[in-house]
Amino acid sequence: MTPYIPDLLEYCRGPACDVYFQRAADTLSAEGLDPTVTMEYFADRAGVLCGMRDVLGVMSRALAGGDELWALEEGASIAAREVVMRVRAPYSRIGRLETAVLGMLASCSGWATAAREVVTAAAGRRVISFGARHVHPLVGPVMEYAAVVGGCAGCATPMGAELAGLAGPSGTMPHAMILVFGDTVRAARAFDEHMPDDVLRIVLADTFKDEAEESLRVAEAMGARLRGVRLDTPWERGRVTVELVKEVRARLDQAGHGHVGIFVSGGMDAERVRQFVAAGAPVDSFGVGMAIAAAPPIGFTADIKEVAGVSRTKRGRIPGLTEAPRLRRVLPAATGAGSPA
Amino acid sequence: MTPYIPDLLEYCRGPACDVYFQRAADTLSAEGLDPTVTMEYFADRAGVLCGMRDVLGVMSRALAGGDELWALEEGASIAAREVVMRVRAPYSRIGRLETAVLGMLASCSGWATAAREVVTAAAGRRVISFGARHVHPLVGPVMEYAAVVGGCAGCATPMGAELAGLAGPSGTMPHAMILVFGDTVRAARAFDEHMPDDVLRIVLADTFKDEAEESLRVAEAMGARLRGVRLDTPWERGRVTVELVKEVRARLDQAGHGHVGIFVSGGMDAERVRQFVAAGAPVDSFGVGMAIAAAPPIGFTADIKEVAGVSRTKRGRIPGLTEAPRLRRVLPAATGAGSPA
Amino acid sequence: MTPYIPDLLEYCRGPACDVYFQRAADTLSAEGLDPTVTMEYFADRAGVLCGMRDVLGVMSRALAGGDELWALEEGASIAAREVVMRVRAPYSRIGRLETAVLGMLASCSGWATAAREVVTAAAGRRVISFGARHVHPLVGPVMEYAAVVGGCAGCATPMGAELAGLAGPSGTMPHAMILVFGDTVRAARAFDEHMPDDVLRIVLADTFKDEAEESLRVAEAMGARLRGVRLDTPWERGRVTVELVKEVRARLDQAGHGHVGIFVSGGMDAERVRQFVAAGAPVDSFGVGMAIAAAPPIGFTADIKEVAGVSRTKRGRIPGLTEAPRLRRVLPAATGAGSPA
Amino acid sequence: MTPYIPDLLEYCRGPACDVYFQRAADTLSAEGLDPTVTMEYFADRAGVLCGMRDVLGVMSRALAGGDELWALEEGASIAAREVVMRVRAPYSRIGRLETAVLGMLASCSGWATAAREVVTAAAGRRVISFGARHVHPLVGPVMEYAAVVGGCAGCATPMGAELAGLAGPSGTMPHAMILVFGDTVRAARAFDEHMPDDVLRIVLADTFKDEAEESLRVAEAMGARLRGVRLDTPWERGRVTVELVKEVRARLDQAGHGHVGIFVSGGMDAERVRQFVAAGAPVDSFGVGMAIAAAPPIGFTADIKEVAGVSRTKRGRIPGLTEAPRLRRVLPAATGAGSPA
Amino acid sequence: MTPYIPDLLEYCRGPACDVYFQRAADTLSAEGLDPTVTMEYFADRAGVLCGMRDVLGVMSRALAGGDELWALEEGASIAAREVVMRVRAPYSRIGRLETAVLGMLASCSGWATAAREVVTAAAGRRVISFGARHVHPLVGPVMEYAAVVGGCAGCATPMGAELAGLAGPSGTMPHAMILVFGDTVRAARAFDEHMPDDVLRIVLADTFKDEAEESLRVAEAMGARLRGVRLDTPWERGRVTVELVKEVRARLDQAGHGHVGIFVSGGMDAERVRQFVAAGAPVDSFGVGMAIAAAPPIGFTADIKEVAGVSRTKRGRIPGLTEAPRLRRVLPAATGAGSPA
Amino acid sequence: MTPYIPDLLEYCRGPACDVYFQRAADTLSAEGLDPTVTMEYFADRAGVLCGMRDVLGVMSRALAGGDELWALEEGASIAAREVVMRVRAPYSRIGRLETAVLGMLASCSGWATAAREVVTAAAGRRVISFGARHVHPLVGPVMEYAAVVGGCAGCATPMGAELAGLAGPSGTMPHAMILVFGDTVRAARAFDEHMPDDVLRIVLADTFKDEAEESLRVAEAMGARLRGVRLDTPWERGRVTVELVKEVRARLDQAGHGHVGIFVSGGMDAERVRQFVAAGAPVDSFGVGMAIAAAPPIGFTADIKEVAGVSRTKRGRIPGLTEAPRLRRVLPAATGAGSPA
After folding, report:
1. Would the CB atoms of A251 and D315 count as touching at under 8 Å?
2. CA D316 to chain centre
3. Chain A residue with minimal CA distance to E213?
4. DSSP state, F73?
5. What is the Rg, in whole angstroms, of the alpha carbon atoms belonging to chain B?
6. Is the ipTM of this complex over 0.90?
């Protein structure tokens, strides 16, 4: 998932690890202390679990024979404080991974959870993640992967699509291209001429003219080749409204372009998607950016619950294993899975 | 800043780029269109500008002689919709960088802005960024860099410290180490024995016993070698309160440990820091995690404002250059800087 | 003011009078009771006094020699419960006028007060009352008169303008005309060709195309003859926004049409006008409809305070004359005015 | 309905018409343009349709043979944005009527809708409209007509009663009459002596004494001839309360005056009526003024939807006829009514 | 109930009586006026009736043969304005008791009502009234009696327990005792050694150490003799939380001390008790102080409804007897009880 | 202050003492433990300190030579958590007094604080405490004492007046007396005839008739002997309003009764008093009941801060003496007072 890191395990327990875990490792090593501990991981609020795929990749390399690991599946719906992973191993093998493991789960689950909310609001209409531009490019594709885990039907970057196992990225055309051409119809025709056949002809219809007028001009010019128009009205013009979508749909239909779909983007979030759906706005797909990309991470915590086979934990937590019947055994990879006794 | 990416420029305009910019590039290239455009970048809300250091690194490689670039400085306070960067170049040289450039600014400025708010609330007390565990490890160190740009005095990962130009990462000791030892005083003594001298002796004092009692035990055991105690009371015990800090301070002082500082962490955000400061809680430093790490990105936008020397932009925006007297010329790197005529 | 009523006095004390005043008159007459009473009129909330002009017209005809009348002036700012008129006359001459007198003051003062609030919000920009369509045509012109008393610079109906003493009504052009023409520029040219010179050339620029585009087309076509454009964006397109006005202004200026003013209408009220002014939107005039026309009436009350020279009033009110130093004597029309001893 | 206007049609399209409709008419006429248009009228919120009776009167005179008109009935409950009238005619015959037609519907529907809410709240008890004094006398009777359309059982002015087709206006006696008499019982006896038999003997019982005491005095004095008492406690004494009504009822009953009804007025609105009904206050009728008279108008809009048989409308609206199955054909007055194809 | 008052009847109608009742008595006596009156007593809001036991004691002494008294029972749930007592007697025998009778009912019913709310919230768990320290000691035991009437299972003072008919007061141990000992375990052992067997061994476990640690130390030290631990965490440490109770329960159970109950106190009110119960916190009993002791009194009123057999009352009240079918005859103490005709 | 308790000290440390203090005393005694402790008392919120007079009385009897006691004065304004009393004595002499001492301060300070708020709101007008009927008669006089400490000018019971050191209790006449007479004027005349001269002639003027009418009747009947009227309008008639007071004042003045004062009662609290004062209502005195009597107690706490000369306290509190410069030495009663070193 992150091919540009030469050795992800080393990265996680070295440069990306909170230094106090290294200091703890050094202190314990100097004392010759390395008991087997049982550690449990849980989230502080409910959501969609994501990031576990990479966590298991790192963990598998870190653990050794005899160590045990149980986990929930990528994409699972989880409850607040539910145990999502449990490891039983000498502390030295897992201590320095805490920062990275929690971080992967935190960011990815935050994004997937937000995506799930939007997708649920869309009630069957397609939702495409368009938010790579709102997060650092180092995690843009990872965010898109999480959005797809949360239910999005597509995403915008090539690496995001690859991580998510999609056939390819989704995209229409940027305002910039139309501005360079100076006319939407001219831009649309050139796009149609030069793009391979598997690229959908969806034309952005709000750059220079009112959306309804531009949609009709484009539909007139491209005829049956036009797959859809994208409405992305800027907030200075009041953003896309339910009424605009209805009017564009009506005008397209009245002019015989019933085959042309409507793609809506621009400041869409779960609440606005819900309003569009409730009002019966004839939207074919929604493009969603900030509402997923800016989702706050979900806080994850790792707790030692046993040391050398004895229940022990810090103040505020209950010692011993937490009941967690949904956990499935990952390591050792045996035929008979199950939660620990 | 991101040494593990072999070629950041290629990464930004390839796998991490929204596909529609690639399609626009292909269409325009097929049409032989490549006018010089002027593009402006601005944020949708006020904050602290961050990420510009890397943006300029990428841009410098992408642009050619004759192209022009103006920008504000890393760490600048910016207003909503203020122009933070302006580029004048053939569109083919900058079009595919839009996703990455906006993303760098979005994430980093979001983190730096949140850090600034906490640091301002702390009114002179040190704030250390402890939130790497709350974001994906690919950006954990980047987040810490941004937190330092926003005013934090330290951060927790080695790479974060390196990016931020600090002497080294900051950290005390994790609950896990104390749990393995089974006693805070024993853990503290081992830590003291094995750590190099430049590691501050700050002992976490809430794992097994009430914080006041544990703080006194540790102070008694370590005497003058103890630099501070860290209070990180879990929410199940009501988190760290102003009153707890005052009591620990009073008990330490009454027992002759006036030299021992108090470090507070656990769910601290700007509002809680403000309350601690207002109530006169004798805190020496604050450790802040989620409040910075989970900061929402700041939305950045790139707008074409001129094409081939003529004012042009999309509906909703005002064509032509925006007044931006604070911009400084970056390229061509001339002696006489200034904003464009 | 209401020339279509053959005899306004008779109308007020006959068909438009609450029947119980007629019954009271009949009963008192049968008993031969007709003492001189002093009646005071006041409003239940602060505002702009309006309707007094017509009230005095009716009163002057109803009263006889020896009767006395004091009043405040049309357009005066009044306090809650301030006495705005005082009459001393035999009860038979004023009893049946109560319904009409209170009604004139109630409606007109409500409208004038709302107009004053909008005009104050506009901080010097012109406000035109456009709300005749929101009230019954019998009072449409009266409402416009009151709006002018409240500070509006113009109104839309001929009779309203006449009542208000304006040179003539104000108006641009309706969407309907442009729809019949089928093109805004064609409609504008025809309008310019056929209208007398004293009609301002203000063209409605939102019927078919985006306002910015249409404004430029019209300005291009009409050149120096164009006085202004009216923006009346429907709510389905997000109403007129501050940003739209700024953009249209900038585009007009950039194209050399700095002489073309901007007239804004559509759902404007005091709050929105205040926001436009605060945001520095370059508006020349505001057209305001519902915010004035739908203003609730101000409740007025008439109280008998003396009967046959003796203080008397109903429970809840204080008998005797209320202190009212601002009242001016109207009848008998003497040189020495003043409030009653 | 408005007999004092010599020619209502001329009034509506002349002095009471927004001047821009006249200018549009002149421009179109000069251009020789007069296509048949289809215009639809709708409200911006739900309510009770009122004013249509007069609108149809004006329209019938304005239209000519071959023109078509469909409408909903006076008093119909309408939904937001439902089409309440549709006209197909040359534009010149209807254009200048827009101000007046919308205004009639706006004011009357606003009043009728408010009346409906109060009447619904009264749950079977009679509601009398007493608010003529709160609106300009030119529309006082019209307001009362609308209140009756909304469900009121009576109104106070002779012209209002005539417009509404009632046997006569309703009314008790004003405070002024009692003040002139100086005693409620004396006033009541005189009223009883001189009024025709068909005037209900309802005596206002709060002018000089506590309502309960006065009610008993009047009941004692008038015996079986007393039909009811009216309680109109001023706000300075806390207005009429549920408890007051219950006490007066109990005291009347205990003294053998069970036949005397209780009429409540003074600041009653739907909410207060609802509270009285919920609390079981033994009220026979409610007199309601401001709550109906000050109702805001309902905004009505007229949209051209077809020009010369072709769908056309302004931006923001959907061209072509709106589905409106409840419309009934009015003109041409044929046997087979129905909505247009 | 108040044995320290030599003659409660004299106290109530003398030093504790509002002086105007004495003046009324003197005036009436001087006039030789002493009609039989019927007086009714009612509360201004719903609640639990308490104080009636003492009221009846005083009334029984004040009344004479032939006088009549009806009342509801101590502890009855009453509605707002429901008659809770009715007396028919010469006014001289009851007039001066009004202050005291109303006061007994007011305070006691306020406390009982608050207790009932907490007890209902506790859903079966025991509630002990611990609030004597929050009210004047003259009424501390009375408050506790009322709390038991409201449903509390115990109270803290000897006199309170006696008034309430309990076997004895409830109590654990104060912080002060543990502070004098300097160690909780030492204090607990001494307590166990010296207390009679019928005193429950419930040890306060939060004085010096974290509650979980202290609870385990005490349980270890006292073994089967320990009945429970009391958690009373001060607000400076975040008060007792649901999570703390769960952790202490788990740690006690894991160490084999399942027989040790958990008693929770410190700022508990109905809302917090409800939250503990809803969250499944394993609490055995709650100690409640302020939430009951600080309950506002319930306002009681006494109204004369008949004088000398004739209905009479003051303005605002309905003369004559109120329907009150739940009243039971108290005096004359006959076999056939019932409400008065 | 509580003469009916034969031995207040024994009462406080016996029947009215929380049993666990007795058990602590027995345990410590059995162990032979009786160190000198320093105990501090403080309130949890700001207010007016009251009850200290009795507390010092009890304490003085409980302490012995050599014991020390510092305190603030009765009636002092205190801050939240300010030390109001400090005692240094063997624990056995003060332990069992904790319940009573805290309870005296809690109730009395609650009442005095509420009284202070009302008195402040009254801005110089007299406030009389009329609330004895709202609290148990055992504390009715104590509540009145506290109200006077808080600033009230008078109270209603003889014992309350005695405790507060007033010349005598205040009172007008009850509704009951007027009801027995059947007429307010008749009652007023009898009252005037039989009462001693030092009883103010203030007549309750709302029993049978409207307050304004009744006030005039009484003033007419009693002439110069009338000192004032009391308005106590029941809530069923809307309570006393500002307007009622103004009207009664005006009518009294117009009839030449300017010497008659107005006394207002009935549901008055600080907020309503503030409104009356702000509105300029001509009130001479306010009678206040529930607003003072139902004031919640102020929570007081007693903390051991030293044991045998060594700082010691419970978790959550700071050991050692709290800075308290306002404390004054009470015992030993020396010439040189001061706070302890």
Report:
1. no
2. 32
3. A315
4. P
5. 25
6. yes
